[in-house]
Amino acid sequence: MSAPQSPAADDIQTLFRYTRWANARMLDAMQAAEAVPVRAVELLSHLLRVQDVWFGRVEGTAHADLALWVDEDLAACAERAGTSVAR
C-alpha cells in the first residue's frame, strides 16, 4: 500500500487531468470544424509547448529549451497533446 499523497500533490494531479481533458476537447472541436482560424492553431501550439516546458520542470526532464512560438499545424498539435497524455 502506498503512502497517501499530500493535498498539493492531489491538486496538481487534478490540474493535469483537467488540462488533458481541456486539450482533448479543444482538439476535437478544431478537428471537427470546417475551417479553423490560423491564430487559434498558433495559440493552441503555444499552449501545448508551454505545457511541455512546465511538465518537464515538474518531471525534471529537459524541456526548458523548447521553442514556445513555432508554426505548427493541427496534426502536430494533436501529436504533441498525445505525447503529453502518454506521460
UniProtKB/TrEMBL annotation:
It comes from the Bacteria. InterPro entries: DinB/YfiT-like. Gene3D superfamilies: dinb family like domain. This is Damage-inducible protein DinB. It comes from Salinibacter ruber.
